[in-house]
Design goal:
Layout (H helix, E strand, L loop, with lengths): L1 H31 L15 E4 L7 E6 L6 E6 L6 E6 L7 E7 L5 E7 L22 H10 L9 E3 L11 E2 L1 H17 L6 E2 L1 H17 L14 H11 L2 E5 L6 H7 L10 H6 L6 E7 L8 E5 L12 E4 L3 E4 L11 E5 L13 E6 L4 E6 L12 E5 L8 E5 L8 E11 L5 E11 L34 E13 L2 E11 L5 E6 H8 L6 E5 L3 E5 L18 E12 L2 E11 L5 E5 L1 H8 L2 E5 L3 E5 L7
Parallel strand pairs: 9-11, 14-21, 22-31, 26-27
Antiparallel strand pairs: 1-2, 2-3, 4-5, 5-6, 7-8, 10-12, 11-12, 13-15, 15-19, 16-17, 16-20, 18-19, 20-21, 22-23, 22-27, 23-24, 24-29, 25-26, 27-28, 28-29, 30-31
Helix pairs in contact: 2-3, 3-6, 4-5
Length: about 625
């Protein structure tokens, strides 16, 4: 009986439990009776990026159901760093390092520590920092090849405007870095450490370049254009008054142009060169426009910086002691020599006391310079001066020999009449060994096993026209399309017996317009006009203008011109101004054939020049 009552109670509990479960089941069934619109799957939108992934953080993407509004997120993996390899040179007082910097986030990682350099004494009389070893010829060649002066095709991120509304524009960072690298190559040849590119200084320099482009001329203290607002003008004025400035030269060639600095208006101080070779220079900035008025191309180079720490030098020379390239455009036959003395080691040199002798060791020819003699500042010829103004380093001795056609071999410099900081007599003697970086010959000649066929000469043969030796040249303005850009030249034309015109173009106008292109060429004169392809043209100020107008008398005929050292005869006419200055004009196709750029004609473009293509008939 006891067992049966327990069974009955258990049965009652089971009935109650069943009733509860049935109610629960009914309740759940009632809720599930509502329709789920996405029971068969969501209708997702396009995935969108909510947070961009970078090299320092993960990103996030999301998509949303267009029916029920549910959002689903996903993680976007962090991107990789974009590394740029760099180096800081070791000095006597400081370790250097090889490191890499992310161009996106700026993260800096040291790859290798470079030990401090051993202290060296400058008893050898070498120029430059005692912490930097003198370079071998091959090291100099490799440096120059690493930083050519060729302009890239794409210069600007945004194009500057040299007219109202004025816009500074922005030069591509890689272009600015390339110009800085070229400057550093020249500094290293001089025995000075590298400088860095400062973005803020570049932004400031752009204002200076724009105002120069507006005015179409050079001025460190430019006047305010009427349509330029005060804020823009103040920044532009600040830039030009604290920069090296250049007109007419492509940006990549301006460090070389500033290093030459030997025209009649600059040779007495060589200020641009001395700023670039300032041992205290630590950072630079460049501004550039190529759509300005007048000279069209204008550069502002901010170099009034003193964040560098180089003090271990006796003197800074250009050309530097030791091996020195003889085919630099920034050191040619008419380029002045300079020696800047360390002010912490020497008293200011006095022109009345200092004498300089320069000896060419190959033949013993010696040039003597003294402040007791009088010299006229000009773009060529014998010259001497001492400038103690603060262009980078004070205490600069400047001299230039005459009668030089090309530097080759060893030259010895001796400077006497100096005083050290204690007032004791002092002097300097050093040697420069000039060598050509191009066109070297093998050290061991080889003997051919079979006779070789003679090769055709590379010098072009140009037909010389039989024109009258003198007569009238007629003004003939003509537009020529240069690499797709129209350029108007003031040419002069000769008429034949039938009245047909043949145009002649001024040689220096052509050199000026092609500067910075693959067809650029330098113009020199050593009794004969000499043209050197691939070298930047040094702007003289007479380009794209003439001191006369209207028809003009000419002298004409065959004229021998040295092209890369080889004489090429071309038809030429010479026009003379009122002061006796001569201007040489040649046929455009003759120049193209001699210098290796294409000249053509089409109905759409008229006469055109293609600087990246060889000349074709």
């Amino acid at each position: 009986m006891k067992w049966r009552k327990k069974a009955v109670r258990s049965l009652s509990l089971l009935l109650v439990l069943a009733m509860c479960l049935g109610m629960a089941a009914f309740s759940v069934s009632a809720e599930q009776g509502e329709t789920d619109p996405c029971a068969n799957g969501h209708s997702w939108s396009e995935t969108r990026t909510v947070v961009e992934a970078t090299c320092v953080q993960k990103g996030e993407s999301a998509r949303t159901c267009t029916v029920c509004g549910e959002t689903q997120t996903s993680v976007i993996p962090q991107t990789a760093h974009s590394w740029v390899n760099k180096a800081e040179a070791a000095t006597v007082g400081k370790e250097g390092r090889e490191y890499r910097v992310c161009s996106n986030c700026g993260k800096d990682e040291t790859v290798k520590i470079l030990p401090k350099l051993e202290q060296k004494s400058n008893t050898s009389g070498e120029s430059g920092s005692a912490s930097l070893s003198k370079l071998s010829r091959q090291e100099i060649i490799d440096l120059l090849n690493s930083a050519p002066t060729t302009m890239p095709g794409d210069i600007f991120v945004t194009t500057p405007s040299c007219a109202s509304p004025y816009q500074t524009g922005k030069v591509r960072t890689e272009v600015l870095e390339a110009v800085k690298d070229r400057l550093n190559v020249l500094r290293r040849i001089a025995g000075l450490p590298a400088v860095t590119l400062d973005s803020a200084m570049c932004e400031e320099a752009q204002y200076g370049a724009v105002i120069l482009g507006k005015l179409g001329t050079l001025s460190h203290t430019p006047s305010k254009p009427a349509d330029m607002d005060d804020a823009f003008y103040k920044k532009a004025y600040s830039a030009t008054s604290s920069s090296n400035i250049y007109a007419g030269l492509a940006l990549m060639s301006t460090p070389d142009g500033f290093m030459d600095d030997s025209d009649g208006s600059n040779v007495d101080r060589l200020g641009h060169r001395r700023w670039q070779l300032n041992p205290a220079l630590g950072k630079v900035g460049f501004g550039y426009v190529d759509n300005g008025n007048g000279y069209r191309r204008f550069t502002a180079e901010k170099v009034f910086d003193k964040s560098g720490r180089t003090t271990d030098y006796d003197y800074i020379a250009w050309p530097a002691s030791g091996n020195f390239p003889s085919d630099l455009s920034c050191f040619e036959a008419n380029t002045a020599w300079s020696v800047s003395l360390n002010p912490s080691r020497y008293q200011k040199p006095a022109a009345s006391a200092v004498t300089v002798s320069l000896t060419r060791e190959s033949d013993g020819k010696t040039w003597s310079f003294s402040g007791r003699n009088s010299y006229q500042a000009s773009s060529s010829g014998l010259y001497f001066n001492i400038n103690n103004a603060g262009y980078g380093v004070d205490n600069c001795i400047i001299f230039r020999p005459d009668g030089i056609s090309k530097y080759e071999g060893v030259y010895t410099v001796s400077i006497q009449g100096l005083k050290d900081r204690n007032g004791a007599a002092a002097g300097l003697t050093y040697q420069v060994d000039f060598f050509a970086t191009k066109g070297g010959t093998p050290t061991t000649p080889t003997t051919p096993t079979t006779p070789t066929e003679p090769t055709n000469p590379t010098t072009p043969t140009i037909t010389v026209d039989n024109i009258p030796a003198w007569g009238t040249a007629y003004v003939s303005n003509q537009t020529v399309t240069v690499d797709g850009r129209p350029v108007q030249f003031q040419m002069y034309a000769l008429k034949n017996a039938n009245g047909d015109l043949t145009n002649y173009i001024k040689l220096r106008d052509m050199a000026y317009i092609l500067n910075g292109t693959k067809a650029q060429f330098a113009v020199g004169y050593d009794g004969t006009i000499s043209l050197t392809t691939g070298r930047p043209y040094a702007v003289g100020g007479t380009e794209m203008t003439t001191p006369f107008s209207g028809n003009r008398g000419y002298r004409g005929g065959a004229q021998g011109v040295k092209v890369n050292g080889t004489t090429v005869n071309m038809t030429a006419i010479t026009l003379t101004d009122a002061d006796g200055g001569d201007y040489n004009y040649f046929k455009l196709r003759d120049l193209g054939k001699a210098l290796g750029f294409n000249v053509g004609y089409s109905n759409a473009s008229g006469v055109f020049i293609e600087t990246d293509k060889p000349y074709t008939e």
